[in-house]
Amino acid sequence: MIKGVIFDFNGTLFWDSQLHIDAWKDYSAKIRAVPFTEEEMLQHMFGRTNADIIEYATGKKPSKELLEKIASEKEAYYRDMCLKRPDEFHLAPCAVEFLDYLKANQIPMTIATMSEWCNVEFYIKEFNLAKWFDLEKIVYSDGSMSGKPAPDIYLRAAKNLGLHPKDCLVVEDALSGIKSAQDAGIGNIIAIASREPIDFYKNLDCLSQIITDFNQIDKSLFKIKNNIF
């Protein structure tokens, strides 16, 4: 039985893949004169840190000053884009209902995202995440761990919940994030097809379920007295 839930955020709880794609296309063209292709986005952007993305785009490890400059500009542009697209700026389908369900049944949960604090703070404020999450337990890109597909982020998230990884459920959308969860020893991994078709995930043996909205998660995974959704 699942004792805790760990959510990726971008592309999972918040379907902002297109917003990030648009922002990175603009800034990748500034960095190397040619925008990222869709394939590059899939392989080198989703689930990665800004440092990883900028290093890929430039072909070398960026200086601290260059990293901070590009990342700050890109993320400010992205946040402004979010606010200007209200039709896209909301939590994923049935996410609020599922979060309410977990909270009502006292199931521990947290977020494990490769977003940096400037964006996490933005999400906390705009989506009122403190309603569901202990903000001190959220794991984000703080420069102290490797990005996905390394397992670090999910190992830390499970530790923050006081749980063994095998007792946790992770919800992810990115291949790098799924690999990260798998290598961390997460007991159940669910892929949410927020951007890619369901068939994209069907050959991944590590998945317990593939969903298109949070209402589809199998509630029998959770050991609770009154399993009502």
Please provide a written account of the structure.
By secondary structure, the chain is an alpha/beta fold. 41% of the residues lie in helices and 9% in strands. It is built from 8 helices and 5 strands; from the N terminus they run βαααααβααβαββ. It has helices spanning 17-32, 38-44, 50-58, 64-84, 95-104, 117-127, 152-161, 175-183, and strands at residues 4-7, 109-111, 168-172, 188-192, 209-211. The chain has a 5-stranded parallel sheet with strand order 2-1-3-4-5, covered by helices on one side. Helix 1 crosses helix 4. The longest helix has 21 residues, at 64-84.
Which features would summarize this protein structure in a list?
229 residues; 8 helices; alpha/beta; single chain
Chain-wise SSE layout:
Blueprint: E1 4-7, H1 17-32, H2 38-44, H3 50-58, H4 64-84, H5 95-104, E2 109-111, H6 117-127, H7 152-161, E3 168-172, H8 175-183, E4 188-192, E5 209-211
Parallel strand pairs: 1-2, 1-3, 3-4, 4-5
Helix pairs in contact: 1-4
